[in-house]
Amino acid sequence: MLSLRLWFSSLATHSTFSCSSRRSLFLVPPQILNNTLSNSSRNLCCFCVKPIKQNGFFPVASHLQSSSSSSFPKDSPFSGLEDALVSYLFGKKRATDIAHMVWKHVVQKGDTVIDATCGNGFDALEMLNLVADGSHDGYVYALDIQKDALDKTSLLLEESLNSNEKQLVKLFNICHSKMENVVPRNASVRLVAFNLGYLPGGDKDIITRSETTLLALEAAKRILMPGGLISIVVYVGHPGGREELETVESFAARLCVENWICCKLQMLNRSTAPIPIFLYRR
Ligand SMILES: C[S@@+](CC[C@H](N)C(=O)[O-])C[C@H]1O[C@@H](n2cnc3c(N)ncnc32)[C@H](O)[C@@H]1O
User: Fold this and answer.
1) Which atom of ligand 1 is nearest to the CA of 119?
2) Is 94 a member of any domain?
3) Is 154 helix (H, G, I), strand (E, B) or coil?
4) Source organism's superkingdom (predicted)?
């Protein structure tokens, strides 16, 4: 069997592994969470790390038992992320925090990266901080279908960056399926990030749609360099969200296992929790 099932059946003094299906399932009782979480979060927490491709399985469960006993494969986007994943498991990190941490392990100064849904600009700002440092001028291509979103991103960048840094973020009011029209043909793109759904604080009827999301994923696949990452946070709480998740998953499941590692993180007892998905090109 390929994966592990970890049961914390009582306090940390009593935990066992058993092999089961192709996914890792974690059920953590309140006694353990008591040491870790604020009072408001003391409920049973269920969490699943599921490889989208069979050979893309990462032995997360063994890390949770003892982070020093083994490590993720060196070419895995999760390498070095054990603490972050444990924080996510214990409800201390959001899906977007996890995505940002994974980006940090992949993106280098001077890289070209794409924010395919720039919205309020938080992801674009995070990306800019990863690619630029004065001596290395990386570029962020930030796309959104809504003019409102670009105005918000622009405002955030205005408040947060100096004039040199601002030049490194290129804003485009286009659908992300057209990303190849704006990113230079010779650019080596290390990260394409999608934060799907609607603009928080904006018009909830303007959402990402399965058909264009699929076209955008295909474009991202074409322009991503080896060693690059397609990062997707999927929201399933709004109409069309579940269908979009299925579209993303089936796109990922078709990627060839020799060249791609595809993985999703999913809360099991919060049916509408955002789902981070990572597609790493070896
Ligand atoms: C969850 S928000 C993004 C949040 C953003 N990354 C941030 O850091 O604030 C989703 C965004 O996707 C945008 N969007 C919807 N359809 C799109 C499309 N086809 N192409 C590009 N952006 C799209 C929406 O306008 C919205 O701003």
Assistant:
1) 27
2) no
3) helix
4) Eukaryota
In a domain, 118, yes or no: yes
Q: What is the pTM of this model?
A: 0.82
For residue 123, give the ligand 1 atom closest to its CA: 8
Q: Look at the chain and report how many structural domains it folds into.
A: 1
User: Which element (helix H / strand E) includes 267?
Assistant: strand 260-267
The residues pairing with 267 across neighbouring beta strands, listed in sequence order, are 47
Burial class of residue 275, CB neighbours in 10 A (0-12, 13-18, 19+):
buried
Q: Tell me how far CA of residue 274 lies from CA of 174, 233, 237, in angstroms.
A: 24, 6, 8
| Tokens 């060839």 found at | 256
CA of 70 to the centre of ligand 1 (A): 38
Q: What percent of the chain has pLDDT over 70?
A: 72
Q: Report which protein residue has its CA nearest ligand 1's atom 3.
A: 119
Domain that holds residue 127: 106-281
Within-domain flag for 9: no
Per residue in 16-72, pLDDT tens?
Answer: 222 233 455 544 444 444 444 343 343 454 556 666 643 433 433 333 333 334 456
Closest by CA position to 16, among listed 82, 65, 58, 57 = 65
Q: Which of 117, 169, 176 to mutate to test the pocket of ligand 1 (most atoms within 8 A of CB)?
A: 117
Q: How far is the CA of 150 from the centre of ligand 1 (A)?
A: 10
